Fold this sequence. Notes:
It is a single chain. By secondary structure, this protein is mainly α. The protein is about 55% helix and about 5% strand. It has helices at about 15-30, 40-45, 50-65, 85-95, 100-105, 105-115, 120-125, 125-135, 150-165, 205-215, 235-240, 245-255, 260-290, 290-320, and strands spanning about 5-10, 35-40, 75-80, 140-145, 175-180. A 3-stranded parallel beta sheet has the order 1-2-3. Strands 4-5 form a two-stranded parallel sheet. Helix 3 (about 50-65) packs across helix 13, helix 4 packs across helix 8 (about 125-135) and helix 10 (about 205-215) runs antiparallel to helix 13. The two termini are about 25 Å apart.
Amino acid sequence: MQRAVSGIKPTGTPHLGNHLGMIAPAIRLGESYDTSLFIADYHALTTLKDADAMRRHSLGIAAYFLAFGLDPERIALYRQSDVPEVCELAWLLSCVTNMGLLERAHAWKAAKDRGQPGSEVHGLFAYPVLMAADILMSDADVVPVGPDQVQHVEMTRDMAERFNATFGETFRLPRAVLREGTPSIPGIDGRKMSKSYDNTLTLVAAPKALKKQVMQIVTDATPLEDPKDPETCNVFALYRQIATPEEIATMRERYLAGGYGYGHAKLALVEALERMAAGPRDRYAALLADAERLEGILARGAERVRPTARAVVARARAAVGFRA
């Protein structure tokens, strides 16, 4: 079976965009691949400077995946910082990685464009090298990504090829696999759903809180009795990602016929979200209350991936002339 690896930063409670774009597809990976999934706390350290929040968010990400069906016996779920081999491998890769390559990284260019004091840290500049180490140390064949993350895999391949050309064949070259049908999820204000915009829908929020988020979705001023264009509506754009084909067709017909208001559509969206969230929300709360269980699952996940990580690092150490 081919190997796949994916990761997510622990920067807060996942929102619907995270869920549909990364989390649900990552859970399904275990059906087709020998899968490793890591909580990227080293990466989060570039922006998250609160130790308590780092611990809380890392366990929260683990609880979320488990609540929505991740089987830790099938998928190795681990915390990045529990596999220290990744840091040594990042250093070895950094010694064959040109500055020009890193300067082209999207995250670095975005940080420079924002111009926020203190944001241009070395950790962010070297982010692609650590990402490459995450991928290469797992001996992954494939890395499922969204369209905006293809660059990470391309840069990983560049680094691996440079290392192999310099020191001899050492690393397996992974390939990017675009997540099929990766949706662009609008937030409640119509922009891309993002914690930084504070425009998210949170499946594990309490029912009243989730409903309040939905009722804040921005719509136009078309009167209730008039027909509406579903293709320009934020509510419909969200509904079509989670409802059944029959439900989507029915809502489309109601929009076009008139006499169906955005308030009706929002209530239908709440119902569909609750259908997704009710059971997992309770499991999430129970898991969060059992930190010892979560720590045990993450520790076992790290134990599963470290033999491969050690073997890859040993190959790299031997290639450069270190004692393996």
